What does this fold into?
Amino acid sequence: MSQHQSPAATQTPAVDYSFSLLTDDDLYLFNEGSHLRLYEKMGSHTVNVRGVRGTYFAVWAPDAEQVFVTGDFNEWGKHPHPLAARGQSGIWEGFIPGVGKGAVYKYHVVSRYNSYRVNKMDPFGVHHETPPRTASVVWDIDYKWKDSDWMSSRAAKNSLHAPMSIYEVHLGSWMRAPEGNSPLTYKDVGPRLAEYAAKMGYTHVELLPIMEHPFYGSWGYQSTGYFAPTARYGTPQEFMYLVDCLHQAGVGLILDWVPSHFPTDEHALGFFDGTHLYEHASPLKGFHPDWNSYIFNYGRNEVRSFLLSSAHYWLDAYHADSLRVDAVASMLYLDYSRQQGDWIPNIYGGNENLEAISFLRRFNEEVYKHHSDTQTTAEESTAWPAVSRPVYVGGLGFGMKWDMGWMHDTLSYMSKDPIHRRYHHNLLTFRMLYAFNENFVLPLSHDEVVYGKGSLIRKMPGDDWQKFANLRALYGYMYAQAAKKLLFMGGEFGQWNEWHHDTSLDWHLLEYPLHSGLQKWVIDLNHLYRNEPALYELDFDPAGFEWLDCNDADNSTISLLRKARSSSDLFLVVCNFTPVPRVGYRVGVPRDGQWKEALNSDSEFYGGSGLGNAGGVQAESVPFHGRPCSLNITLPPLTALFFKSEG
It folds into this structure.
């Protein structure tokens, strides 16, 4: 029970103000910025009150004069169901008998300023109408999960010391129904995606933002429903089914999450109660010039509670294994994408957004405190220090960070004609100067195959055979690096066209040998990576990586060692980035014995020329590269070779 201010004069007996899900502790934590699970109390919830079934509504609108619930159950009237203000908390609430699951509603907010009136979707709604409709839907998040085996063992699978090969997916365009080019539903796509990801050997699937968004062309990055999967593909329970399918197939789920900005659509969070409630009031801090969107006011306690609750919601209710936070750089810098005079310095005169930094640290602390078997990852594109270091040593607290520098350098190198690569060798080797400053993920993401940049296969020089050989070599080099891996859908089989959100991937290309060969190469890379501790166990430890020769620019080759905690596990990787085969190429190794050729991207099985080392090479007692032994190998053109020490 609670004490309320007097409800508006237009109240009707249909609204019961004597019941509340919110306790005084909830209000305290909410106003303090420490509430982690507001979704359990705010929004709409069907409940029984004294034997009467109905729905309890609660919405934050501190500068409203009145708030009404309007919906299909009261013919979208503005006054039949007013809510009552809960003390000084800024929350309006009420129980409406007879309103049940499936009811469609909005909040009609009357501001105390300028007679501003607007219909708003529910910020805490767990389900909304299918766009372009914008109302919220009374719903629940009940579901009988069948992923207990995964959940009980996922700590080891999500560990920083575990293999992590991520398949990045836009759900609406991964695969579409042949008839009408319509997107598949959660129920249809779940089993197919789970089966495919498992077959390919991926450890995790990362979904571009699945949270409700009004503009499909934003790919989800203009989120409005921070507690609702988009209704375009089905209900919350059907999305849970998709997650369940992945987990039962042994595949983890990473969700893109966007606390950096939100769209200006009138029905959403912006100017919610006639004031800049969720966004910062100053356009110099509260409006994003690149995306024409609002920026959250990270210094406002209730906004922090809102965002922290959203993060925990996806981990709690949807069993997500990780959250990848989008556009972190835009949150960290007050002058991000702004000219001099278009931003406000912090209290110390600097360009750091102190409130956002504080929020991100709190976010990571709370996630790892309550979900220690999950991870967080930052998409952060600058040299901000210690992004993936603990808060207690001054870091931001993320588990991992995307290595955007590696992506730009590597694609720049690979796009050059091999005859010129010798002059750009540093683009291949530079990352090892900083590779262990953070816990890096190497991303070949959706951002690199849109807006005229061309698909990955089209970035490669040469004729078709050379393009595919180049791309196989690139992937081999990527999997040899000390870091986790991410590849956007379509890249695994060499899609020619740029990605477009309105069409399916070109799955018919797998009928052609070069495309199916590339897919087989990615499958074998994933399985080798997952099964060999030397290739993943020390991804974030300098002890797991050693150059053999990073200076052979004239031949455009590199050779390196990958190591595990066990001294017996040792891999040699040699890459040739020219179309010239090199017979009798000598590479130093630290031990004698047989070195098995575990993978060769030039195998005919993958579409290569079939040049190789007959399954392995015996080390010779010929010192080279400062090592006591060496291998005399055949290095095929445009190739990555993986050798495992059997000594």
Summary: Confidence is low (pLDDT under 50) at residues 1-13.
